[in-house]
Design brief:
single chain, alpha/beta, Four Helix Bundle (Hemerythrin (Met), subunit A), Rossmann fold, 434 Repressor (Amino-terminal Domain), 3 domains, eight-stranded mixed β-sheet, 20 helices, flat
């Protein structure tokens, strides 16, 4: 995500490294490179120019000119300006009303239906809500089926009327259904088109007029860059929506939409989404995104993701087992599963300061753990709980069972033993944070 933009900005800052002070001459050169990097990332030229003019103005202040570390100071100025450009602070959903109604709009292929499922999962697991999903795309049968499948995955009910083409009527009936079943949030997935379409716009506007939703979220494919910003502006003129959702941030996005959409429509980005997993939905924090764009990492988000998978009781049990040198293959598999739930592995590693640039050219497969899990799954319960039972005969059987070479099985078990040895040496150290990234 934003790898190209991050590289270009890093190159721009290098012009200031090793220089004792910021001067108008090197400011001009750096600002020019920053502007070019933003335009290449598909940020509108007018926005890029205003952004860099503001940077130049702040960088040429007397205190800055006399700064000891001009390169670092310029990075801070750019980070602050990027944060402001993308909205400054995070914006919460308005979930008032009984039920609260959330209308989802956007073009076909932007990821509306998947986002609707992710939002329902987010509200259920993190906000303690009881959501109802509504299949409002009556023109694409696959959309109803897709939403139904997503609903079953997250155990959220989906309301649909397969034979009814009156979307306003479906939505109104869904509200009645929600009230009768004590559902406190209704999420309505609407139809989209391949391009802005008057019929689609009118339909969504009619739903808005009939239901008066608390939130209207415009879902936009971040890979479409400036086109996404233009589409957002057109939708906003008709719907006056309350917030933006950026999807497909795990794709080859240049960053233009994330950087300039708030400036263009003056509506906050409320969520960012990546991948197909229902857990991969994040509240949009402008400052954290600015840090990631600048290659500064996002350790706060990484810790939060870890804490979401953190079970205090289980962590205490694990800590006790580690202290007694009883960590086994079942414990190891459980830890792998928790890491997988945190999201895309490369994105997670990119949140660690300094790591993102090091791994940008490395292909990190989300299925990287599958081989290890296959080896563990081929063990008997007794073997998983007692790693010391491993002998050549057992290893040979495990290799055949999981379809791996004996060399791979031996290598994994050797690495596991080395990890256990390392844990054993840490037994005398404070263990409060070993099982997690820290407690709330």
């Amino acid at each position: 995500m934003f790898e190209s933009l991050s590289d270009r900005l890093d190159t721009a800052f290098k012009n200031l490294k090793g220089q004792g002070r910021i001067t108008e001459l090197n400011i001009a050169s750096t600002v020019k490179d920053i502007r070019r990097a933003l335009v290449d990332a598909d940020v509108n030229y007018k926005i890029a120019k205003e952004f860099t003019d503001s940077i130049k103005e702040k960088a040429t202040g007397e205190k800055v000119i006399n700064a000891v570390s001009p390169g670092q100071l310029m990075v801070k100025i750019v980070k602050d300006e990027l944060t402001d450009l993308m909205g400054g602070v995070e914006t919460d959903l308005d979930l008032s009303g009984n039920p609260a109604v959330i209308l989802i709009a956007g073009l076909q292929g932007s990821g509306k239906t998947t986002f609707s499922g992710k939002l329902a999962n987010y509200l259920k697991t993190k906000k303690g809500k009881s959501p109802l999903l509504v299949a409002g795309d009556v023109y694409r049968p696959a959309a109803i089926e897709q939403l139904t499948i997503l609903g079953s995955q997250i155990n959220v009910e989906v309301y649909s009327e397969a034979e009814n083409k009156n979307v306003v009527g479906i939505a109104q009936n869904a509200i009645k259904e929600a009230k009768s079943k004590n559902k406190n949030v209704v999420i309505i997935d609407t139809a989209g088109r391949l391009a802005i379409d008057e019929v689609m716009m009118t339909e969504v506007a009619n739903i808005k007029s009939a239901l008066n939703p608390k939130e209207i979220l415009f879902v936009v494919d971040s890979m479409t860059g400036q086109d996404a910003v233009n589409t957002a502006a057109a939708f906003n003129q008709r719907l006056n929506y309350t917030g933006v959702v950026l999807t497909k941030l795990d794709g080859d996005t240049r960053g233009g939409a994330a950087i300039s959409i708030k400036y263009t429509v003056n509506k906050p980005i409320k969520f960012v989404s990546s991948g197909e997993k229902m857990e991969t939905l994040d509240v949009f924090y402008p400052e954290r995104m600015a840090q990631r764009i600048l290659g500064m990492g996002d350790i706060v988000s990484l810790v939060e993701k870890a804490q979401e998978q953190f079970d205090e009781v289980e962590a205490a049990k694990l800590e006790k087992k580690i202290r007694k040198n009883q960590f086994d293959f079942e414990d190891f598999k459980t830890q792998l599963q928790q890491i997988k739930k945190m999201g895309n592995l490369k994105d997670l590693m990119g949140m660690i300061p300094g790591v993102g640039k090091q791994i940008k050219d490395i292909d990190i497969n989300d299925d990287a753990f599958k081989g290890i899990e296959a080896i563990i799954n081929s063990m008997t319960v007794e073997e998983r709980r007692n790693p010391e039972l491993m002998n050549p005969g057992r290893k040979q059987r495990i290799a055949k069972g999981c379809g791996k070479d004996l060399v791979e099985v031996n290598q994994f078990i050797k690495q596991f033993d080395q990890m256990k040895s390392m844990m054993k040496t840490m037994n005398k150290m404070p263990m409060g944070k070993l099982a997690g990234f820290g407690k709330r």
